[in-house]
Amino acid sequence: MKAEVRQHRAAQHPLPASSKVVADKTTSSSSERVGGYAAGDAPEKRKNRELYEGLQAATAGAGAGAAIAPATAAASPPASPAASAEPAVSYMLNAAPPRAQPAATTGRRHTPLAHKPEVLAPVGGWPQLRAAVENGADAVYFGLEDFNARARAANFSLEELPRVMAYLHARGVKGFIALNVLVFDEELAAVEERVRAMAAAGVDAVIVQDWGVVELMRRVAPGLPVHGSTQMSITSGEGAAWVAGLGVERVVVARELSVREIAKVRDAVPGTEVEAFVHGALCVSYSGQCFSSEAWGGRSANRGQCAQACRLPYGLLVDGLLRELGDVSYLLSPQDLMAVEQVPDLITAGVSCFKIEGRLKGPEYVALTTQMYRRAVDAAWAHLTGEGLTAEMAGGEGADGAAAADPEAAARAAVALTEQQRWDLEQVFARGQDGEHRGLTPGFLEGVAHQRLVRGRGPRHRGVYLGTVAEVGPRGVVLQLQAPLKRGDGVAFDCGRPEAEEPGGSVYDILDGGSGETSLSMGAAGGGGGGDTNTPVPPGTRVTLVLGQGVGQAEVLRRVSPGDLVWRTKDPALEQRLRHSWDGIAAAEARRLPVTAEVSGRVGEPLTLTLRALDSPAASSAGAGCTTASASSSVLLAAAAKRPMSAEDVARGLGPNLGEEALAVPAGGLDVSGLQLEAGLFLPASELKAVRRRAVEALLAARAAAALRTAAGMAAGPVLPGLLAAAAAERAPPAALALVRSLACTGPVGANGAARPEAGGKAGPGKAASSSQAAAAVGDREQQQEGLPAAEAERVASGAAAGPSRRGTVAEGGADGDGVAAGDGVCIRVLCRSREQVDAALQVPWLREVVVDFLEVQGLKEAVAAVRASGRRVVVATPRVLKPDEQRLWLFYLRLGADGLLVRSAGMLHTLTQLGGPGARVPDVPYPIPALEGDFSLNAANVLSASLLLSSGSSSSTGSSSSTGGADGSSSGEVWRGLSRLAPTHDLHAGQMAALAAGLGPRAALLEAVVHQHLPIFHTEHCVFCRFLSSGNSYKDCGHPCESATLHLRDQSGADHLVLADMGCRNTVFNARAQSGVFFLRDLLRAGIRTLRLELVDEAPQAVAPLLEGYRDVVLGRRGPGDLWRWLAALPDANGAAHGVDAGSLQPARERARGGMKPTAAALKQQQQQQQQQQGASRESAGAGRR
């Protein structure tokens, strides 16, 4: 059955057209050159010349531009396309998006979308919810009290959910729930309950990260739409096609994509909607790929508990020496995203939903950003499609023709921001850096621009830039204003030390900057006659700021110096205006559900009233996106004996809100053209109201039923037990098991988790622990901790005995049936990141497998050849991120002739499985597709997601023998088309990993545990090398300092974290401290896991053999884990510094309760306002008592 489902999904989502290499003429103009480079420049001007030349040769010689079909041994090469001017890998700066072809419909339509995109607003609580609705949101997204990526937000309780959805639906607004975290096995039952409650409440969609949760939702509530979270790390059309095949209806693409790249994703999956972030905070790391909180705080960003390590200060070490950067120290803290002016291009690219980030922010932020994007989407859509375009929007009667001639230019002009609008957006939230970099940028939508994205002067909200201190005088601070300012506004002085409390306060008065005697904030009246006015002083004025009198002012002046930057941190007038947009508005002004009314009938027939509720921005009176209901009069229309019925009579009888407070008939929403008023009709007024009442009742009933469509088909009983039982019973593929057995470098594993020294032992079936034993505590802990430093021993022991936690406890388990028996040996393999490490590893006689992970591909081909020549198996790691122009890299990796590929992205997995999977042959590639193995970045966190990945294939016979076939005597013609092994996400600790193995039953042996590594804490599109070691904006003009310099980031504790750049210029920051699972080895082996991976980063070659021998000796029981632990703690990095070792993410740890987290600024402000209201009410009550 599963194989049939997979075949059906593959048929529905073949490899998308974006995998073609085609010429994009929009990117080759001379105006798009950056630093003298252009997209079509020759490969020798790029990084990794060998890679690009190889790809271009393959493209020209093998028809790489043709669509990929499932490969077979007899497949013939596709025809070659026209030569492309654009290399296979591209990073565009200010690249124009591809212009969409006009639709076949009449009228202008410069967008592939059939309906106007949604404006999706963030909601952290009730005030934000009302602010979003009243300011024009089409949809909102929010979290419940658990299982969402913003644990610090107020969120909503499960009991509140029906009321929230009723409030939204009554106003024609959709509600999406964020269930965008990884879910552990012990939580799946609770998630099933939440899914049932969501479907019953009429939730419009659920935003999901975990692939296992997607599978669970499809079985529990098939009518409940699933949106793929940006936490899924979808960066290409192939990745989007993969998750669409799982049942995802909309994908939220990574923030790191440009408009052009987003268009390619959308084109690749035309049946799947694309949602993109357009405003708010930018994470420096790819969402779903950040493990800094996991490494340093025992918290996880994939669990909604991000510690924001990217907003901390770091020093820059270049070749071991600390580089002086002045007041620049926030090297990983990006400015925020603002894409108001990119809205037309995003619509043209096919973005269906514009998402505003900010569930931790206040209602004022939500109100303003929703306003801005509502206005921009409406204006851009009108110009691009002609729908709803008025003469006023077009700029007058004559301008309408000009707008029609170039609608895209007209749309861009319509959304251009005024300076005042920019100031308002900066005021509600912007991480301003200086006068040129004011905190809001297009992010990556125009391509990479490293000098613009991260400036490094500060990590937090600043507000509006006012200028630079010219002098500090006796009356106050003198500066020339760069933005308006008035009395009562808040200001802060930026002295270049944002980590310290900065001087500032409320503006008491604004004097002229000359004599300092005249108040400029009283308008023309000066100091008299106009004392009640508070006129903003315009930019360009030289002023003296007075912050008060006495000690407070003197203390501020003492700490301020010429050259300090000045920011307006508070604008009470703006806050009041925004608050009035949702708080305390009159009922008549509140948002209502727009309903159009159509009246028809003639003499001798009943009057018919048809109502259409415009339930979405895509709704139209033609019926698309509408809920429709009709009612007819019980009295027939008659000829009028006296005054006939008029259109005004009909309008009065129906009323502006159809007699229902939540409804409203918009201007022009009443159509009486179907009513033959010219014939002189009569109908009693009471009958018209009766028709109205019946039509409204039918409409509301239809909308209530439509809202509950998500509950249709909901499973009657619990689904999870059956899914878990099926996952545990599924047999392991013989070919994959044969591979694991053939690579064992120890003898059989005993009941205590220790292995015998005999290599290659093949013990018969042994008694394996049952899955119910997976909850048992760690055994033999005292013995394992021998020699461990006291503090670390206490931490490990306390973690192991912590009882119920976010991650459970360490388990015992093993494989039954066709799995690797408890007696089978252990495969220990090493991942190398340099040729020197590879050569050192090949000196270890018992080592049978090497994983090669060269982030830069220079020398990769030779390293693969060296490992194969030594008789070992070689696996090549593929990139964690592949963008649309990079998907052809699969060809490069296949031509290496490796024995296996370590797959790290959904896009690569989809591509290789669509090509036929392991054993299939691809034209112009001399080797068959090798075995595929899944890595941690696929984020398998539970039995459902792991089973999904391990089942993504099927055994088949092939005429060609596999390099791994026959290791245990099985037929060499049997090839496993799915993943041969899988490393779970780093969010699992050792106990959960063991429990996961138990839950997979016989397939436990296909799991791999990474037991030694420097955790990859950040994986980012932002290039630290380019930003701080060059003046360039991208690889085109940076000079490639990554190829010559060694870079570390020094944190506040003095630890130095290595930074490496990959072939796509993405940076990975590795934790300085090594993470070791040496104390958990026996528990993992008892659970049935048979592959242990040791990862190297910058370890010296001479440390490789002792490291490998040390772990093998612990597995064999020859060496105590504490002894190896001490040796690991003293192992130096490339600069000769030792940063120690810890258990890191493998260590059980409790998650923080929301009450124990730092409250958000929005929550603190709300509490302050509530306290002020309570104090005001108390004073009023006391005054009334005295009176």
From TrEMBL:
Residues 753-778, 796-813, 1166-1175 have a biased composition (Low complexity). Pfam families: DUF3656 (PF12392), Peptidase_U32 (PF01136). SUPFAM superfamilies: Ribulose-phoshate binding barrel (SSF51366). Residues 566-703 form the Peptidase U32 collagenase domain. It comes from Chlamydomonas incerta. This is Peptidase U32 collagenase domain-containing protein. Residues 1-50, 753-815, 953-973, 1147-1187 are annotated as: Disordered. InterPro entries: Pept_U32_collagenase (IPR020988), Peptidase_U32 (IPR001539), RibuloseP-bd_barrel (IPR011060), RNA/ubiquinone_mod_enzymes (IPR051454).
